[in-house]
Design brief:
With 167 residues, the chain is mainly α. The protein contains eight helices and no strands. Helix 3 crosses helix 4 and helix 6 runs antiparallel to helix 7. The longest helix has 24 residues. The radius of gyration is 23 Å and the shape is flat. It starts with 5 loop residues before the first helix and ends with a helix.
Length: 167
Amino acid sequence: ETKAAFPWSCLEERADQLLSHVERQRAAPENGAGGVTKLTSADLLDAGDYAAILAGKPVDRRQREFEEKRNAILAATAQVFLAKGLHAASMADIAAQAGVAKGTLYNFFTSKEELYFTLIEEKLHEFFLYMQAEVGQVASAVEKIVRIVHAECAFFEANWAFFRIYM
């Protein structure tokens, strides 16, 4: 009826779907489970879904899952590169650390070098956003220089493991 009522309407609809799923499971339990209801992760909304609904945005679970898996692969890549170094690490090592098949890894990244450059690009993007937040509102040139030095040191200290990989 109203824009403000839309998120609650979506939540009510999803709750009805969950309840009907529970009723179907109880009516015909699998493998003699005796009425125990099994809900899969696809049956439940997570915090990202609720945030999207409340913000009036569509829920795109596949895109979010893609991004989560991609980020998990990048995190695993950083761990393997830190432990073994860029040249000694293999795609098989990265796939094992990420908990995915090697073929799945190649669905996301074509090579170890692409993984490395993606890590660099994303960390640089994070660095520039951090610097903009730390320095962007300062008017004085001297104060900007002071803030830049402090912000760079803080960022480097917080991300020392990444900079070991970078070097």
